[in-house]
């Protein structure tokens, strides 16, 4: 691997070691933090600067994404199986979509990456050392933007958007509470704690997700401009 690109572990050793000209930018945060909105705004803005963008994220692999949806539908999926399915999904995307795009000079925008999967798995009792080995295939991003929001705010956003709470995003498989409302708050608080720890460990750029979308986008553009300097971006305005 080149001096610029490196993996969190052993990586994908069968791929040639090249100095890919693209960039990998990750938007992180729990469901309801505003990631998708900011990813969409950032994609549009970068394309306006003349750079090609690949928009990707969790559960978008052609290999197992449909299988993940089917497996989760019964609400009986085991924790390790759930983790390995999502890991397979990301590994397939990395090899067949993300790295080819980086090789071609694209800006790869990932709506969540290994960090969301790690937060979920840690909340479900997985070993941190096991997870670090599991995700050793992943490339280190050029920039990770973390949108911090409170569990209470995410609760209100989930209810406003869906009028109900998702089984898995409420952590109902963990037995934290009998009702989904209380379980959601407890589970999301666990996720929050793990995100905060990873923000320090992995050097996230943390933004206040409770700000307006316009304010957040302004800060996201500033971060992207510094990261992609020399790639054709104009100064953030």
Tell me the major beta sheet: 5 strands, parallel
Instruction: Please state the overall shape, judged from the principal axes of the Cα atoms.
Output: globular
Rounded mean pLDDT is: 90
What is the subunit organization of this protein?
Answer: single chain
**Intertermini distance:** 35 Å
Uncertain parts: none
CATH topology: Rossmann fold
In DSSP terms, counting alpha (H) and pi (I) runs of 4 or more, how many helices? 8
The total strand number stands at: 5
Integer tally of domains: 1
The CATH homologous superfamily is named P-loop containing nucleotide triphosphate hydrolases
What would you note in describing this structure?
This protein is α/β, with parallel strands linked by helices. The chain has one domain: Rossmann fold, CATH 3.40.50.300. 49% of the residues lie in helices and 11% in strands. The chain contains eight helices and five strands. A five-stranded parallel beta sheet has the order 2-3-1-4-5, sandwiched between helices. α1 crosses α8, α2 runs antiparallel to α3 and α4 packs across α7. The longest helix is centred in the middle third of the chain and has 25 residues. The relative contact order is 0.19.
Key phrases:
237 residues, alpha/beta, Rossmann fold, five-stranded parallel β-sheet, 8 helices
Question: Could you provide a short overview of the structure?
Answer:
This protein is α/β, with parallel strands linked by helices and 237 residues long.
């Amino acid at each position: 691997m080149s001096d610029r690109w490196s993996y969190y572990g052993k990586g994908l050793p069968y791929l040639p070691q090249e100095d890919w000209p693209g960039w990998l930018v990750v938007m992180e945060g729990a469901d309801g933090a505003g990631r998708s909105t900011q990813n969409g705004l950032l994609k549009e803005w970068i394309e306006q600067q003349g750079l090609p963008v690949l928009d990707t994220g969790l559960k978008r692999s052609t290999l197992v994404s449909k299988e993940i949806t089917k497996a989760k539908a019964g609400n009986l999926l085991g924790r390790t199986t759930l983790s390995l399915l999502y890991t397979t999904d990301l590994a397939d995307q990395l090899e067949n979509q993300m790295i080819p795009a980086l090789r071609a000079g694209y800006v790869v925008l990932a709506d969540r990456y290994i960090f969301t999967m790690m937060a979920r798995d840690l909340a479900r009792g997985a070993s941190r050392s096991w997870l670090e080995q599991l995700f050793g295939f992943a490339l280190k991003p050029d920039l990770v933007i973390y949108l911090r929001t409170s569990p209470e705010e995410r609760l209100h956003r989930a209810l406003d958007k869906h009028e109900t709470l998702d089984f898995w995003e409420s952590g109902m498989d963990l037995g934290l509470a009998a009702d989904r409302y209380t379980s959601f708050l407890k589970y999301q608080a666990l996720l929050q704690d793990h995100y905060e720890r990873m923000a320090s460990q992995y050097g996230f750029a943390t933004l206040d997700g409770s700000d307006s979308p316009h304010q957040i986008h302004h800060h996201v553009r500033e971060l992207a401009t510094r990261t992609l300097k020399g790639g054709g971006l104009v100064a953030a305005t």
